[in-house]
Amino acid sequence: MEFTPSMSSSSHVWLVPTPVVTQAPPQTQANPTIKPTLRLYANVLVAALQPFQFGWSTSQMNNSIFNNEVDCDARPIAPGTCLMFPGHTKTQWTIAVSSWIVGGMIGALVTGRVSNKFGRKPTMMANCLFMIAGAVIQAAASNITTFTVGRVFAGIAAGGSTAVIPGFIGEICPPNLRSKLGVCFQISITLGHLCVAITFFFASTSTGWRYIAAFPILLAFLFLVLAPFVLVESPAWLLMAGKPLAAEHELARLFGQENVFLAKTWMKQEEETAPRVGVGSEFVQPMQDLRMSMALMAPNAPKARGLVDLFSPALIRQLLVAIGVAAAQQLTGVNAVFFYSSGIFKQAGLSDSRIGVLLVNFVNVLPTLFCGLLSARLGNRKLILIGFTGMLLSAVGITVTLVTSVSPLAIVFVALYVTTFGASLGPLAWGVMADLFPDDVRAVGCSICVGCSWLCSLTVGLVYPYLAAALGNFSFVPFMYTITLSFLFFFSVVPDTYGKTIQEIQDEFEVRRLKKSRNRDQWHMSGKSQIAVLG
Q1: pLDDT per residue over 373-397, tens digit each?
Q2: Does residue 382 form part of some domain?
Q3: Where is the Major facilitator superfamily (MFS) profile domain (predicted)?
Q4: Which residues are bridge partners to 7 per DSSP?
């Protein structure tokens, strides 16, 4: 997700919509840019504390010492095994793992509307209360049922962060930095995965798991202490709320009073001010810049549209494609690795599965750092298609190593699987989903897509343990099918969002819709003509 600023032929800046855009138009010396400020970086870093909890909670139970089906079914239970709630059943453990996803669905579906009504900053601060509640309940739990309830609260916090924070980062960043700083969301998640994997080497005790569960309390308190002084409210939200003066004040805090006017030009709210493809944008752009800047400060700033609007003929295709992107991100099986890779490595014959889990989470961080550069060179769609190819080959390799019990190669192929995901679909799917929606329905549209993403993640979390038990060494074969279908889906219907404004993407969908409508009308007319001839 690299932002490469682009220019129209008149060297005026394209008006890039917020909150999340995968790139901005290229800049030249004729186009003044705003240098990033310490406050901007501080806002991004503070916001990134919450997705760290997402990654931490995803993997906190992925330790075979906490749960191993054979050890937990044994009677009596051997010392040093099945450390979390000794004697729990496979079903209880699966529900505990997956309850976090149920909470994530709730958080994702609710938080979008809450943030639209009350603002991004208050919503993020309120989300910390769920982080604290989830951590306290899990750390103090005396039985796995109570622990499961805590996982639901932790999931609500994680789902809330996915619904608000990517958009918030996009809304406060200038176009040339949206991709570079937007990827911090995914980097924070991967660091959460990695750090919790490190704790497995010194906290794999009968009480150590409680400290692991309690750690998000520190993240929440740190956020609540820093947020009132560091975080700004999203200027884009303030404009939608009819508070243009407050929006200007926050822009001044972010970029300095001298850069407020330029910053306002990036915050287009009215789609009609954006240049249309092939309609002489080099002539109309200067006037549109002026009209847009005036509109931004008007008291009657446009309001966000609602859920019903997404099902209109003009938007239903975008919604379905975005849902498909969300489903592909989860159904290709990456969460089977993050939830259950310790069991996969045990199945492959690795003596200490913690080593495999640590290596997998380490290689998950690295490709995310370079995703922006790869996207700039290849484009989002092509990079994701390459990622699907790598994931498919890795799934084949995982299956072969499980069948042959070659544990070193099992680590290699699982790491390759995670690497190709982390360099393509993992970080890019969030931006692609957001780019498919116009500004005024993006919050609601992304909320639905994130909810669908959590639903698919829940499906994988619930089904994979039983799939592994039924298929044994061939448990990754179903993912080969979903990866192949996802490849065909992206190849056929998902547009490449790289190098395009939101309006250009909407124009592509409109052209497809009109073409389909025209073909349907021609088919009906042809049928009527044939009936007339026969008559």
Answers
A1: 788 788 889 999 999 999 999 999 9
A2: yes
A3: 43-498
A4: 13
